[in-house]
Structure formats: C-alpha cells, structure tokens
Design goal:
Blueprint (H helix, E strand, L loop, with lengths): L19 H7 L6 E3 L4 E3 L14 E6 L7 E7 L6 E10 L7 H4 L13 E4 L8 E5 L12 E3 L2 E3 L1 E7 L2 E6 L9
Antiparallel strand pairs: 1-2, 2-3, 3-4, 4-5, 6-7, 7-10, 8-9, 10-11
C-alpha cells in the first residue's frame, strides 16, 4: 500500500462535492470526475446527444458561490471541432444521477426520482435528452425556475436538434403544442 494512500484513523475526511464514491457503487459503468478547484462535475463521453454516433461532453460548472449552484455546459462532437452549448440559466445545486438500477427500470419517471438529473430518450426521438429538476429552495438564485410563456417550469428537458439546444417543460414534453 502506498504511504500516500494510507490514512490514519485520526485523519479527518476532507469535505468534497464529488459523487465518485456513490457512483463507483451504484453506477460502475459511468465515466465521471469532479474537479475541486474548478467546482465542475464532469459526465463527458457517456452519451451521444446530437445523434452523430460520437459521445458528447456534459459538465455542470459551479458558480463559486456560498450556496453552490451548477450550470449546464454541453460540448457536442458534431460539426467537426464541436459546438459548446452553455446554458447559464439552467442550474442545479445537486446534479446527481439515479442509480443504474433505477434508470433501467421499465417506465422510469425522472420526476418521481429523488435525484435532480437524468439522461434518457424521454421524448422518444431516438436521441438522448437531459432531464433536470430545478429545486425550489430558499437558498436558490433568482434563476431557480425558468419562465416560459408566463409559466414557471420546475422540470426541464434539454435536447439537441443538430447543434441547437431545445429547452422544454418536461411535464409537457410529449404535448404537440410544446
């Protein structure tokens, strides 16, 4: 055992925002890392969002605030060198995926999940979508909900047609008028 890895019983755990230990247990096939200084959850190269057959980048980048919020950043591999979509008003304070077991259940409904983020083909167009639960919290920023046509939206679906992001109310995802 490497001396750097050896930990004494008196040595305290250093707090972290990383989900790495939980993912190793509940999502062992997931590519994930957390960068402490940049406050960034990196979920890159797990899913293809634009349908080009190449897995894309997905990051939640921290705002460096006292109550840390993360905005979504997606790097699409299409169009040669790639396209970066930064969605600064789409924030979460806990961008954690459900377990592989929960995600694989028939009829999985991310709204009913205790987690705030999921990836799947929720609109049934054969492309992966990002689901994000926007938590109502006394600590949330004014961006804690997205207003669209005078509606407050707490569950979002983010999908990509080509290189353009489409942000929609998840609860009305399969409504033809949405």
């Amino acid at each position: 055992m490497d001396l750097l890895e050896k930990k004494s019983q008196d040595e305290p755990d250093i707090p972290t925002n990383s989900f790495e230990k939980r993912y190793k247990k509940n999502n062992p096939g997931l590519r994930y890392s957390y960068h402490e200084k940049k406050q960034t959850h990196n979920y890159s190269y797990n899913w293809d969002f634009d349908g080009d057959g190449k897995k894309d980048e997905l990051l939640f980048v921290g705002n460096k605030g006292a109550h840390l919020q993360y905005h979504l950043r997606v790097g699409l591999s299409s169009e040669g060198e790639g396209i970066i979509c930064i969605l600064p008003t789409v924030e979460s304070d806990f961008p954690f995926l459900p377990s592989e077991r929960e995600l694989s259940k028939k009829g999985f409904d991310p709204i009913k999940s205790h987690e705030f983020f999921a990836v799947g083909d929720f609109n049934k167009d054969s492309l992966m979508d990002i689901f994000l639960k926007i938590e109502k919290s006394p600590y949330a920023t004014p961006k804690d909900s997205v207003e669209r046509k005078n509606q407050v939206v707490n569950y979002l679906s983010i999908s990509f047609k080509g290189a353009k992001p489409r942000v929609r109310n998840f609860e009305k995802l399969n409504d033809p008028e949405n």
